[in-house]
Specification:
mainly alpha, two-stranded antiparallel ribbon, 2 strands
Protein backbone atom coordinates (compact mmCIF):
# COMPACT_ATOMS: atom_id res chain seq x y z
CA UNK A 1 0.00 0.00 0.00
CA UNK A 2 1.42 3.37 -1.01
CA UNK A 3 1.39 6.68 0.78
CA UNK A 4 -1.91 8.42 1.52
CA UNK A 5 -2.24 12.15 2.26
CA UNK A 6 -5.55 13.84 3.11
CA UNK A 7 -7.32 10.70 1.97
CA UNK A 8 -5.62 10.78 -1.44
CA UNK A 9 -3.66 7.69 -2.41
CA UNK A 10 -0.35 8.57 -4.05
CA UNK A 11 -0.02 6.29 -7.10
CA UNK A 12 2.72 3.77 -6.37
CA UNK A 13 4.19 2.36 -9.57
CA UNK A 14 7.54 2.31 -11.32
CA UNK A 15 6.31 5.21 -13.45
CA UNK A 16 5.31 7.44 -10.56
CA UNK A 17 8.31 6.54 -8.41
CA UNK A 18 10.64 7.50 -11.26
CA UNK A 19 8.69 10.72 -11.85
CA UNK A 20 9.03 11.58 -8.16
CA UNK A 21 12.77 10.99 -8.15
CA UNK A 22 13.31 12.95 -11.36
CA UNK A 23 11.52 16.00 -9.99
CA UNK A 24 13.22 15.66 -6.60
CA UNK A 25 16.61 15.60 -8.36
CA UNK A 26 16.13 18.61 -10.66
CA UNK A 27 13.71 20.90 -8.82
CA UNK A 28 14.12 22.95 -5.66
CA UNK A 29 12.25 21.78 -2.54
CA UNK A 30 9.91 24.71 -3.18
CA UNK A 31 8.90 23.38 -6.61
CA UNK A 32 8.87 19.75 -5.49
CA UNK A 33 6.48 20.42 -2.63
CA UNK A 34 4.35 22.69 -4.80
CA UNK A 35 4.07 20.00 -7.50
CA UNK A 36 3.02 17.37 -4.97
CA UNK A 37 0.41 19.75 -3.57
CA UNK A 38 -0.88 20.36 -7.09
CA UNK A 39 -1.48 16.61 -7.46
CA UNK A 40 -3.13 16.33 -4.06
CA UNK A 41 -5.35 19.37 -4.48
CA UNK A 42 -6.20 18.34 -8.04
CA UNK A 43 -7.16 14.85 -6.86
CA UNK A 44 -9.25 16.31 -4.02
CA UNK A 45 -11.05 18.60 -6.46
CA UNK A 46 -11.59 15.62 -8.75
CA UNK A 47 -13.14 13.64 -5.93
CA UNK A 48 -15.35 16.54 -4.95
CA UNK A 49 -16.53 16.89 -8.56
CA UNK A 50 -16.87 13.11 -8.98
CA UNK A 51 -14.57 13.09 -11.99
CA UNK A 52 -13.16 9.85 -13.38
CA UNK A 53 -9.45 10.52 -13.80
CA UNK A 54 -6.30 8.46 -14.19
CA UNK A 55 -4.22 9.04 -11.02
CA UNK A 56 -0.92 8.19 -12.74
CA UNK A 57 -1.49 10.63 -15.58
CA UNK A 58 -2.61 13.33 -13.18
CA UNK A 59 0.46 12.68 -11.04
CA UNK A 60 2.89 13.05 -13.95
CA UNK A 61 1.07 16.18 -15.13
CA UNK A 62 1.27 17.73 -11.68
CA UNK A 63 4.85 16.72 -10.99
CA UNK A 64 6.18 17.89 -14.36
CA UNK A 65 4.12 21.05 -14.73
CA UNK A 66 6.89 23.40 -13.53
CA UNK A 67 9.93 21.58 -14.91
CA UNK A 68 10.34 24.46 -17.35
CA UNK A 69 11.38 26.62 -14.40
CA UNK A 70 14.30 24.32 -13.51
CA UNK A 71 17.84 24.86 -14.72
CA UNK A 72 17.99 21.45 -16.37
CA UNK A 73 14.85 21.69 -18.46
CA UNK A 74 14.24 25.36 -19.13
CA UNK A 75 14.83 26.74 -22.60
CA UNK A 76 14.76 30.31 -23.86
CA UNK A 77 12.84 29.91 -27.11
CA UNK A 78 9.40 28.85 -25.90
CA UNK A 79 6.97 29.18 -22.99
CA UNK A 80 8.10 27.44 -19.82
CA UNK A 81 4.86 25.46 -19.79
CA UNK A 82 5.87 23.81 -23.07
CA UNK A 83 9.28 22.87 -21.64
CA UNK A 84 7.57 20.79 -18.97
CA UNK A 85 4.95 19.44 -21.35
CA UNK A 86 7.58 18.25 -23.82
CA UNK A 87 9.58 16.52 -21.10
CA UNK A 88 6.47 14.82 -19.70
CA UNK A 89 5.60 13.44 -23.12
CA UNK A 90 9.17 12.15 -23.61
CA UNK A 91 9.04 10.57 -20.15
CA UNK A 92 5.70 8.87 -20.83
CA UNK A 93 6.83 7.63 -24.26
CA UNK A 94 9.90 6.09 -22.61
CA UNK A 95 7.52 4.18 -20.33
CA UNK A 96 5.32 2.94 -23.17
CA UNK A 97 2.53 5.50 -22.72
CA UNK A 98 1.96 7.12 -26.09
CA UNK A 99 -0.72 8.63 -28.32
CA UNK A 100 -3.75 10.26 -26.67
CA UNK A 101 -2.84 9.62 -23.00
CA UNK A 102 0.61 11.19 -23.46
CA UNK A 103 -0.91 14.05 -25.43
CA UNK A 104 -3.45 14.55 -22.63
CA UNK A 105 -0.66 15.09 -20.12
CA UNK A 106 1.15 17.39 -22.57
CA UNK A 107 -2.02 19.47 -22.89
CA UNK A 108 -2.57 19.55 -19.12
CA UNK A 109 0.87 21.05 -18.56
CA UNK A 110 0.92 23.34 -21.60
CA UNK A 111 -2.41 24.93 -20.63
CA UNK A 112 -2.05 25.11 -16.86
CA UNK A 113 -1.61 28.90 -16.88
CA UNK A 114 -4.38 29.49 -19.41
CA UNK A 115 -7.52 30.43 -17.45
CA UNK A 116 -10.83 28.62 -17.96
CA UNK A 117 -10.14 26.60 -21.14
CA UNK A 118 -8.54 23.56 -19.38
CA UNK A 119 -11.56 23.26 -17.09
CA UNK A 120 -13.67 22.24 -20.10
CA UNK A 121 -11.28 19.49 -21.20
CA UNK A 122 -10.39 15.97 -20.06
CA UNK A 123 -10.38 15.45 -16.28
CA UNK A 124 -6.58 15.22 -16.01
CA UNK A 125 -6.22 18.48 -17.96
CA UNK A 126 -8.80 20.22 -15.79
CA UNK A 127 -7.39 18.90 -12.53
CA UNK A 128 -3.79 19.97 -13.10
CA UNK A 129 -5.18 23.48 -13.54
CA UNK A 130 -7.48 23.08 -10.51
CA UNK A 131 -4.50 22.04 -8.39
CA UNK A 132 -2.34 24.91 -9.61
CA UNK A 133 -5.11 27.45 -9.13
CA UNK A 134 -5.80 26.29 -5.58
CA UNK A 135 -2.16 26.21 -4.49
CA UNK A 136 -0.97 29.40 -6.20
CA UNK A 137 -4.04 31.60 -6.48
CA UNK A 138 -6.31 30.26 -3.75
CA UNK A 139 -9.07 29.53 -6.28
CA UNK A 140 -11.15 26.72 -4.80
CA UNK A 141 -9.60 27.21 -1.34
CA UNK A 142 -12.90 26.40 0.38
CA UNK A 143 -13.77 23.56 -1.99
CA UNK A 144 -11.55 21.34 0.15
CA UNK A 145 -12.00 21.04 3.89
CA UNK A 146 -9.80 22.70 6.48
CA UNK A 147 -8.67 19.24 7.58
CA UNK A 148 -7.72 18.20 4.04
CA UNK A 149 -5.84 21.43 3.45
CA UNK A 150 -3.97 21.09 6.73
CA UNK A 151 -2.98 17.50 5.96
CA UNK A 152 -1.61 18.45 2.52
CA UNK A 153 0.39 21.37 3.93
CA UNK A 154 1.69 19.26 6.82
CA UNK A 155 3.09 16.77 4.31
CA UNK A 156 4.36 19.45 1.93
CA UNK A 157 4.87 22.75 3.76
CA UNK A 158 4.65 26.15 2.06
CA UNK A 159 6.77 28.59 4.10
CA UNK A 160 6.66 32.11 2.59
CA UNK A 161 5.28 30.40 -0.51
CA UNK A 162 3.70 33.44 -2.16
CA UNK A 163 6.96 35.37 -2.30
CA UNK A 164 9.13 32.37 -3.09
CA UNK A 165 7.01 31.06 -5.96
CA UNK A 166 6.91 34.54 -7.51
CA UNK A 167 10.72 34.62 -7.30
CA UNK A 168 10.88 31.19 -8.96
CA UNK A 169 8.57 32.33 -11.75
CA UNK A 170 10.70 35.42 -12.31
CA UNK A 171 13.96 33.49 -12.40
CA UNK A 172 12.51 30.91 -14.78
CA UNK A 173 11.16 33.33 -17.39
CA UNK A 174 13.11 36.58 -17.15
CA UNK A 175 15.47 35.52 -19.96
CA UNK A 176 12.56 34.86 -22.37
CA UNK A 177 10.20 37.77 -21.80
CA UNK A 178 8.68 37.53 -25.28
CA UNK A 179 7.18 34.14 -24.36
CA UNK A 180 4.89 35.81 -21.81
CA UNK A 181 2.90 37.64 -24.51
CA UNK A 182 -0.79 37.04 -23.90
CA UNK A 183 -0.41 34.94 -20.73
CA UNK A 184 -0.46 35.55 -17.00
CA UNK A 185 3.31 35.40 -16.55
CA UNK A 186 3.63 38.86 -18.14
CA UNK A 187 2.26 40.16 -14.83
CA UNK A 188 5.20 38.58 -13.00
CA UNK A 189 7.79 40.32 -15.16
CA UNK A 190 5.89 43.62 -14.98
CA UNK A 191 6.21 43.48 -11.18
CA UNK A 192 9.75 42.18 -10.79
CA UNK A 193 11.80 43.00 -13.91
CA UNK A 194 12.58 46.72 -14.34
CA UNK A 195 12.32 47.80 -17.95
CA UNK A 196 10.03 44.98 -19.01
CA UNK A 197 7.51 46.11 -21.61
CA UNK A 198 4.63 43.71 -22.15
CA UNK A 199 3.49 42.91 -25.67
CA UNK A 200 0.42 44.79 -26.83
CA UNK A 201 -2.05 42.77 -28.91
CA UNK A 202 -3.56 45.92 -30.44
CA UNK A 203 -0.14 47.21 -31.49
CA UNK A 204 0.73 43.84 -33.03
CA UNK A 205 -2.39 44.06 -35.20
CA UNK A 206 -1.81 47.69 -36.15
CA UNK A 207 1.87 47.11 -36.87
CA UNK A 208 1.46 44.01 -39.04
CA UNK A 209 2.43 43.97 -42.73
CA UNK A 210 -1.22 44.15 -43.81
CA UNK A 211 -1.89 47.54 -45.42
CA UNK A 212 -5.28 47.87 -43.73
Amino acid sequence: MGESIAGVQIPDSALTREATELVRDVASPLLFDHSRRVFLFGALRGGEQKLDFDPELLYVGAMFHDLGLTERFRRTDQRFEIDGADEARRFLHAHGITDEPADRVWTAIALHTTPEIPLHMAPEVALVTRGVELDVLGIGYHAVSDEQRAAVVAAHPRPDFKNRILAAFTEGIEDRPETTFGNVKADVLAHFCPGFVRGDFVEVIKGSDWPE
